[in-house]
Amino acid sequence: MDAMRRFLFLLFGFAISVQAAEPPPNVLLITADNLGYGDLRCYRPESTIPTPNLDRLAAEGARLTSFYTASPTCTVSRACLLTGRIPERHGLTKQLPGIEGNWGVGLRHEEILIPELLKRAPTPYATGCFGKWNIGFAEGSRPTERGFDEFFGFASGNINYYTHNYNGKPDLYEGIEPVVRTGDYATDLFADAAIDFIGRKSEEGVPWFCYLPFNAPHFPNPRNRPEGEPNAWQAPDRAFEAVGLSPDEADPAKRYRAVVWALDEAIGRVLAALDKAGAAERTFVFFYSDNGAFLLNREGLDVGNNDPLRSGGVTCWEGGLRVAALARWPGNIEPGSVIETPLWSPDLLQAAVKIAGASLPDDGRAYDGKNPLPVLTGMTRESPHRSFFFQYGKHAALRMGDWKIVREKPEQPWMLFDLAEDLGEQTDRAAKRVDQLKELESEFASWKATF
Asked: The domain that contains 268 carries what CATH number?
């Protein structure tokens, strides 16, 4: 594709290909669940967790160092990804609670998700979701009722990795039908389902969208453990062996290494499936964590690492919002590149729509994502965003340029940080940079005026 054709494709989403019969590129979105910014060696070389496949993905594509999730918690962040809209617009602002919440309506039905848009593309996409849903499982809310042709996964949050139970309720489905796969490791199950989908659809020669939201390495819920078993990080024996441990290892931090290794292995198998299907060269792959690692010290099991960022999940500090993210698209994204330009998760809907040559609905709906492809492909270093707005519970934050304001309660004064010089958010500059503070406060108010 010559430079002008490539430019038009990335900017406007025209479905241009070298051969007219060639389908548009595939899209593979992979999410981890509560992975720490500092858990991966490609972000923090001191990490003791071997992740060769994610390291390979970074080497073959781009590593994003300023990528944000639009919410620091599981349910809300997934709704933001799939709608391209922040919580104040799509309405799902809190974590879905328990059985009632997870099997309720969740995300309102009038919201339009990525797979629905891609199925309306000039060349309709085959669509599959494999893993953690967590945005509502009532009738009309389930994946196969919201644009996905296929679904294999679970409705809730932190299921048991082997029994697949959530708060005493079996929670594994194919489409809308319950299935039982007791004894099979959840991470492997979801990778296997994605691999099968990729192989079948690639052989059929149709473009596909695969959403692969792993539940790993989410904190194990003590309510989901079988009676008499300790509440511990769960991983296959081969994962413990790979990181030099016994499956009987008691140290939670060491057991966590096996969980992340097993996630990395599963991602490696999915990438290998792309190669085997001959689809790697025409597939846009994006990986990121739904939010930062939780650091709540629950039963001593919150052992993920967000270094060098402050705090973690369910907060609007960088450790809750800035996440590890990797992108690969052969021939478009420069191998081994590092992208410092700020982007965020709602942008991925825009990327998928552009790649597919699809269109957004003409109904006045406000989208908070913007096309990230010019940044990802090195055509510009300028962020398409003026600022980024965050609000969860009582926490709130706004980033504009290298500056960020944060507060933990609405009645507290804003704190101001220079992220270029103070990534760990340790030095409050509010008293010394009053004009800067006022500018960000005004920007925050401008965002709120649009809701």
From this structure: 3.40.720.10
Q: Are residues 242 and 129 in the same domain?
A: yes
Residues 414 and 319 reside in one and the same domain? no
With contact defined as beta carbons under 8 Å apart, do 191 and 266 qualify?
yes
The tokens for 297 are 């010290």
Whether residue 264 sits in one domain with residue 122: yes
The whole domain housing 267 covers: 24-385
Number of separate domains in the chain: 2
pTM above 0.90, yes or no: yes
In which residue are the tokens 């944060």 written? 406
Structural element, H or E, at residue 286: strand 283-289
- Work out the burial of residue 170: count CB atoms within 10 Å of its CB; fewer than 13 is exposed, 13-18 middle, 19 or more buried: middle
Residues in Cβ contact with 184 at an 8 Å cutoff, skipping those fewer than 6 apart: 162
| The amino acid at 358 | A
Q: Are 32 and 288 in contact (CB under 8 A)?
A: yes
What is the distance between the alpha carbons of residues 290 and 307, in angstroms, rounded to a whole number?
17
User: Residue 217: is the preceding peptide bond cis (ω within 30°)?
Assistant: yes
Phi, psi (degrees; rounded to nearest 5) at 311: 60, -155
pLDDT in tens, 399-429: 999 999 999 999 999 999 999 999 999 999 9
Residue 441 and residue 293 share a domain: no
Measured distance CA(82)–CA(26) in Å, rounded: 17
414 and 342 share a domain? no
Between helices 347-356 and 74-83, what is the axis angle to 10°? 30
